[in-house]
Every structure is written in structure tokens, then in C-alpha cells.
Amino acid sequence: MNIIKATKRTTATSGQINKLRSEGFIPAVLYGGEKNNLNISLKKLHLQEIIKTGTFMSKVIDLDIDGAAEKALAKEIAYDPVSDEPIHIDFIRIVKGTKLILEIPVRFINSDKSPGLKKGGVLNIVRRKVELKCPAENIPDEIIVDLDNTEINTSLKISTVKLPEGVTPTITDRDFVIGTVVAPTVLVEPEKPEETAAEGEAPTEGAVEGAAAGEEDAAKPTDDKSGDDKNKAAPADKGKPTAKENKKK
Question: Domains in the chain and their CATH numbers?
Fold first, then answer.
């Protein structure tokens, strides 16, 4: 149990409440049961550390209000939208013999003793909190789920959890799952398609040599073509007398 000191407050206006906050206090109200509602204030520095534990909303708190003890449970916390610091808390009185519906956090233990996790399995958490109906005098701080001897494809259901006496889940129509040990998911990368020559692939050495040889053959005139040119030039030379022939005439 957590014991938190609180003092009665008479602040009523928004100005008085803001002044109270600036002095390092959080305004709160305690209600429920047969007693009247009570306006109180608590030291923010001490309370912030308890709120950060994550179980503040499900733990029974002993409020020491100017020397008078009151068992209470935090019902609602208001936060500043800018600083995200608590600015107001509602507490409900715990009356013996009554039952409360609360969301209790789940904690998994013995992960190092799970054969399934040792083989590379993964713990899949389905529910981080479970809603329970609890007697006011027997509220658990957390629900313990044991992973000892769990294999891959094991489902951890609410029926496998040992709950305190008088504590029952609010869901009664099925044996719901809290967590599972599953096989790891392996992502297979798709094969990269081969790049074609048109997309920038360098041609093979043989193809380069063949292309170069073709260009050289195209640049050189063939023997047949040169022979044809000589034959075409021969008739033209027949009609023209040579220099020696002109001198004789």
C-alpha cells in the first residue's frame, strides 16, 4: 500500500486553485461511500513519481488527510495540455464489502525459461491490461503471466492465470487470450530482375570485336568494285590519242 499525505483545502475559485498549483500542490477530491465529498491537495513532487509507475490507477492508496486515514483509489487524472503534468485527481473511497471494476496491468515473467522464445519465437502481447471485478479489500497490483515451458504457438489464456481470491474477469463468456508465443516472421526480398543490354548493360567482348570488324569492312572498297571502276574508265581512254601518237602525225 502507498501512503500519501494530503491536506484539506478551502480553495474554490480558479484563481485560488491556480495559486495552489504554482506553490507545488495538486488539487484533488475524495468522494464515495456514506461520507461527504472532501476537497484536498497533495504535493506534486511526491505524487508525480508514483503516477509514473503505471500502476497508480489500480493501486489502493492510504491517504493521510491531516492525520485521518482514508483508503482510496485514483479514478481519474486531469493533465495540462501543454506541460502534460497532472493538475487534478479524483479519488474514490474504498468501502469494505464493495466490489470495484478495474483495469489491472499484465506482467509477463520467466521469458528466459521459454523454449519457444529460445528457438527464436516472439511474444505477442494481446492485452496489456485486463478488466477485473475485485473486492475492495483484495485488489491486485498486477496480473502475472508465467512463460515457463511455453513453446511456439502457445496461447496464454485468462484461465491459465492465478487470480486472487474473489477476483474475476468481467468477460465471462469466453476464455480470452492475453498473449501468444509465435514463430518469427521472416521477410524474403524479391529477386532483382536482370538488366537487359538496352538498359545499359555492356555488350560482350566478342560482340564489340564483331562490330568493329564490320565497320572496317564497310570503310574499305571491295576488289570487285575497284575492278568495275577500271573497266568503266578504259573505254574513255581508247578514244583519246597518246602524246607519242600526236607527234608522229
Answer: 2-95 (2.40.240.10), 100-182 (2.170.120.20)
CA distance 69 to 1: 13
The residue assigned the cell 511526491 is 46
Please, how many CA atoms are within 13 Å of residue 95, restricted to the half-sphere of its CB? 8
- C-alpha separations of 155 from 52, 97, 127, 167 in Å: 30, 35, 12, 22
Other CB atoms within 10 A of residue 154 CB: 18
Tens of pLDDT, residue by residue over 81-109, are: 999 899 999 999 988 888 889 999 999 99
Model pTM score: 0.61
At 52, the pLDDT band (50, 70, 90 cuts) reads confident
